[in-house]
Write a structure and sequence with these properties.
Elements lengths: L1 E2 L2 H19 L9 H22 L5 H6 L1 E3 L5 H16 L10 H17 L3 H5 L5 E3 L2
Antiparallel strand pairs: 1-3, 2-3
Amino acid sequence: MRPTTAFEKLLSSTINVGFVLGCFFPFLFLDLSVFGSKVLLIFLFFVYKIGVICFNHNRSLGMMITGAYWKKEYSLRKQFVHAVLYTLSFSTLLFSFFFPFDLFLLNMSFQFLMVKLTGTTIHGYLSGRMLTVKKS
């Protein structure tokens, strides 16, 4: 087994985000405010992550497509903390302070640095050093 690379982690997350955006598409036809739409999208992402924990042994669609696995079986508490932090990380796509995607770019910069230093993302590290690997 080898640790997943920063690119593999990014690809897996991109697949997860794309899937949730696809699930969100029908909600675009509701008369929601921009803020309400963002909150709903964040909620859907969290529900997706909880569904992955409950029904797919904490292996997301992105992990399945990229061939990634968790290094070991992590406790439900750690998985839940990871779901919350992963959702917070996702939400940086939707909000900004100075220019579009400023929080997201800052988040991705810190994520990349963290992966280089620890082998896992910020949310993986803070939820108990949860590591993903690829089987050889």
